[in-house]
Write the structure tokens for this entry.
Amino acid sequence: MPTDTVVLATSWIHQFALGERPARTLLVGAAMLTCHYRFGRLGFDLTAHSTTVTDDPAETISWLADAFHIPPERLLLWRGEDIVVPSLIAVAETARDTIAAARMLRELDMVFKAEVIDVADAYGGTGATSFDAIAHANGIPFVPMTRADLAEAHRTGHHGAIREHLAARVKATWRLWLKSREDCESLVAATEAWISTPDAQVRL
Amino acid sequence: MRASLRLPDHTRAPGAVLAYDLETIAPQTPDGSFPPWPTHMPVAAGFAEARSRGGEWTFDIAALVVSGDTQEADLIREADRRMAAVDVVTSYNGRQFDALVLRLAAQRARLWNLKAIADHAAAPRFGGEHADLADQYSSFGRKVGLADLCNAVGIPVKTDVSGGDVAALWEAGETERIRRYVMEDAVATMCLHFAWTASRAATEALVTRPMAALARHIEATPDLAHLSAFVDCELMRWCRPRALHADVAAALERVTARLRREEDERAFATA
């Protein structure tokens, strides 16, 4: 039985219809921060994936499906109800690769049977101000990526920009969750110690 | 942005449901008992309408109070218009009170062409057009109050005033408090209807998905800020995370159907 807590962040782009090709939502990036206990020790694992203009759009969909093959005990999201889940559903429903889409939804179906926490609930829920404003107000460094910047990174094949942005987002979401809880001193200390190591940087 | 979602095929839910509640005033009886229903005059009506289309739920929540330019006849016509536009009307003890009061008030106002109210008041006991939750929850036996059921299920109700306060509020001209109260009762009735429907169909998604959509509607509508108790209630806190799973499950069903169709088309093309 896994006891992992996973933080998930995703980025997507809406692509307008062109000729006979219908509009679709492209999953251009995803990042996961896993907090786990192994042999009595707390550990973190940061991974990310991205797809740009020259890649197969199903790659990140398949990566996410593989990453969730073993569902975590707890999933943390930011605005899951009106941002993350609807965008993932839109990605699956408009994907040209139906097999990859069905596989991702099958894994997500298992993941969402477990505990799902919307970290935004502690910061005003749907009435919360923007993620970067809340991170900034809580002293967590985070530089937002605008829709235009994301589109540019996708257009120019800049995987690093997408992955670094999403990695920063999952780390900030995790720290916001810790701040919203009590009795987390040991977790906060472990997080701060890990953040200062090279392992806290996403690898391309 | 929210993707279009469709309910799984095996679930059964009406396309449009109207929950309503009336507030009335009546002359006091000598012994202080509840006045006979024909003596009641409607002074306010609350409406909570939920529509499911393509799996997406939308809401229309409103209330009318007889005051200023709004007359009793306007309230009755509005009830008829709203009842005509839905598949199911749900109420709490409407079969024994609200529907009878509405029908008699329409006749008193000489409004004879209100088919929806006529059908509603004459709806058969075991038919599906009028879901009287007081009957359904008691299995047509001894009824209990709406608040007893709402408290048990975790739905807020009568958070400010109760039905017994309406006469005094009416006398004091506090129409806004009556409006808020009757609207709250209508929304509580609708939430209880979702709980009943999910339980009866043994399908969790029939309560989780509409409740989550209701929370989003209240949060997005500043005029409904006084209904914020529904966003924070026990039932809603239980429903919202589970609605995410229901959304994913519904999407999986649709994509799996698409996958089967594509496989069939490929098999046909190569045959």
In short: DSSP finds ten helices and five strands in chain B.
